[in-house]
C-alpha cells in the first residue's frame, strides 16, 4: 500500500473546485512511477492519496470524506482498482469521528508540543521538529511537480525559491555540475543551469537576489 499525504491550507474556491482533478493527477503520477515498462498491471500497488486541510473541501462538515471509483449504473457492483482518495477536514464533526483522529488532526493543524497529547503524537512531534530544522531535506524531498509549481507561483514562492537556490549554491560549491544537481533535486536542467550561471556572474548576490533575477528572466 502506498500512502501519499498532502497538507493543504489554501481553501480558495477556485482551488477547491479542482481538488478532484488534483487528486487524479497525484494518483496518475504515483502509478506511472511505480510500474516499469512491460510489467503486469496486477503489480500496481494500492494507493491512498490523503488531503489534510483546515477548510471543508465539500462544505458538508465531515471530518472524513473517502472517495473511490464505482459503477454509476450498478452501485453495488464491486469495482476495486486499489485507488482511494481521502479528504480530512480538521474541524469536521459530522459522522462522530474518533477521538484519536480528532487529536491527530488538531496536532497537524497546529503542531505545537502542547497539542501532542499522547506518546504517538509526541513521537511525531519530535520528527516534525527534526525536519523543520533541516530545510534542505524538506525541500529535496518535495515532489518534483510541487516544487516546480512552487517556483512558478510568484508571491508565495519568492522565499521558498531562495531556499532552493541556496541548496543549488551548496551543491555547486561541492563540485556538482548543473546536470548532476538537476538530477539530484529532480528539477529541469535548464532552470538549474540558469541559476548556476547567475551565481557565477553575480558572486556577491544573495539567494533572494538570485531568485529575483530568475523571475525576471522568466518574465
Structure description:
This protein is an alpha/beta fold. The protein has two domains: 96 residues, no CATH class; 82 residues, Orthogonal Bundle (Arc Repressor Mutant, subunit A). Helices cover 50% and strands 11% of the residues. The chain has a four-stranded mixed sheet with strand order 1-2-4-3, sandwiched between helices. Helix 7 packs across helix 10, helix 8 packs across helix 9 and helix 9 packs across helix 10. The relative contact order is 0.08.
Structural class, from secondary structure content?
alpha/beta
Number of helices: 10
Largest sheet entry:
4 strands, mixed
Bin the strand percentage: 5-15%
Q: Output the strand order for the largest sheet.
A: 1-2-4-3
Overall average pLDDT? 83
Number of strands: 4
Q: What's the helix-strand series? A: EHHEEEHHHHHHHH
Gap between N and C termini, in Å?
Answer: 42 Å
The rough form would be described as globular
In the predicted model, the low-confidence regions spanning at least 5 consecutive residues are 152-156
Provide the domain count.
Answer: 2
The portion of residues assigned to helices is: 40-55%
Rg result: 21 Å
